[in-house]
Amino acid sequence: MLIIVLMYICICNAITERQVKAAVEGGAHTLSQLQAELGVASCCGTCADTAMDYLPGGQYGSRGTAASQPSGLATLPTEHTTVPAYRAVSASLI
């Protein structure tokens, strides 16, 4: 069974990490260029910072330190941890 994992960068426009990486590899060097090509950060804008991380010089960009890591996989926890629901809710109210 083949499982494909997609990391969405922009939920509003269903833009994936693969699409952003392809646009950057194709020559996009600014957020404006990503917006023009893909429509990323053109709705609510929440994804703008994440999209910019993939640009050259960004966290995942060609000069970033994490560019060679598999997308999302290197940051996943290695052990199962649980937090009681009442703690998560009460912490968010503080």
Automatic annotation (TrEMBL):
<keyword id="KW-0479">Metal-binding</keyword>
<dbReference type="InterPro" id="IPR052371">
    <property type="entry name" value="BFD-associated_ferredoxin"/>
</dbReference>
<keyword id="KW-0411">Iron-sulfur</keyword>
<protein>
    <recommendedName>
        <fullName>Bacterioferritin-associated ferredoxin</fullName>
    </recommendedName>
</protein>
<dbReference type="Pfam" id="PF04324">
    <property type="entry name" value="Fer2_BFD"/>
</dbReference>
<keyword id="KW-0249">Electron transport</keyword>
<keyword id="KW-0001">2Fe-2S</keyword>
<dbReference type="GO" id="GO:0051537">
    <property type="term" value="F:2 iron, 2 sulfur cluster binding"/>
</dbReference>
<keyword id="KW-0408">Iron</keyword>
<keyword id="KW-0813">Transport</keyword>
<feature type="domain" description="BFD-like [2Fe-2S]-binding">
    <location>
        <begin position="8"/>
        <end position="55"/>
    </location>
</feature>
<comment type="similarity">
    <text>Belongs to the Bfd family.</text>
</comment>
<dbReference type="InterPro" id="IPR041854">
    <property type="entry name" value="BFD-like_2Fe2S-bd_dom_sf"/>
</dbReference>
<dbReference type="GO" id="GO:0046872">
    <property type="term" value="F:metal ion binding"/>
</dbReference>
<dbReference type="InterPro" id="IPR007419">
    <property type="entry name" value="BFD-like_2Fe2S-bd_dom"/>
</dbReference>
